[in-house]
Specification:
Distance between the termini: 27 Å
Number of domains: 1
Strand order of the largest sheet: 3-2-1-4-5
Number of helices: 6
Helix content: 40-55%
Shape: globular
CATH architecture: 3-Layer(aba) Sandwich
CATH superfamily: HUPs
Low-confidence stretches: 1-7
Order of helices and strands: HEHEHEHEHEH
Largest sheet: 5 strands, parallel
CATH class: Alpha Beta
CATH topology: Rossmann fold
Number of strands: 5
Strand content: 15-25%
Length: 160
């Protein structure tokens, strides 16, 4: 369980998915946490598997997806520890990523900032950034920081 806000300072939440821009969001969150005495939290959401004819196959697929999520978070936790000086808070949830993200923010009062990175290219910043800066903007209780696409490590370090 995460420490209370009074002891932990700000908690910068990063949504971990398979996109390349996650690294930029994580670096920004780590820099901000290091500079403000805060902490980083990582959320990985396992998307529901398609309906299976056999329950055991679905259970096995869920267990494998959870293990992969936990392995990825452990790998990223080591990077966060190196960049921020602290181990992050780790969350694994199953469901629709956007819905689970909103639910976690609503449930965890220690989370104080959501950090996402925009995807580069003509297809837009990504579905989560698009949703949270559009219709869902009023549904999150914390500030949203969007790291611009193409901002390299030096640029992130300079502004964080």
């Amino acid at each position: 369980m995460p420490e209370s806000s009074a002891r932990a300072g700000r908690v910068f939440l990063v949504m971990v998915d398979d996109s390349a821009e996650v690294r930029a969001a994580m670096r920004f969150a780590c820099c901000r946490a290091r500079h403000t005495g805060g902490r980083v939290a990582l959320l990985r959401v396992i998307e529901p598997t398609e309906a299976q004819d056999f329950v055991t196959i679905g259970d096995l697929m869920r267990a494998e997806a959870r293990q992969e999520a936990e392995d990825l978070l452990q790998e990223l936790a080591a990077q966060v520890n190196e960049m921020s000086g602290q181990l992050p808070v780790l969350y694994v949830r199953e469901g629709i990523p956007r819905d689970e993200l909103l639910r976690l923010i609503a449930e965890e009062p220690d989370i104080s900032v959501l950090v996402l990175a925009a995807a580069p290219g003509p297809r837009g910043p990504g579905p989560l950034v698009t949703a949270l800066t559009g219709k869902l903007c009023g549904m999150i209780r914390v500030p949203l920081t969007i790291v611009p696409a193409g901002l390299g490590d030096d640029g992130i370090d300079a502004i964080a």
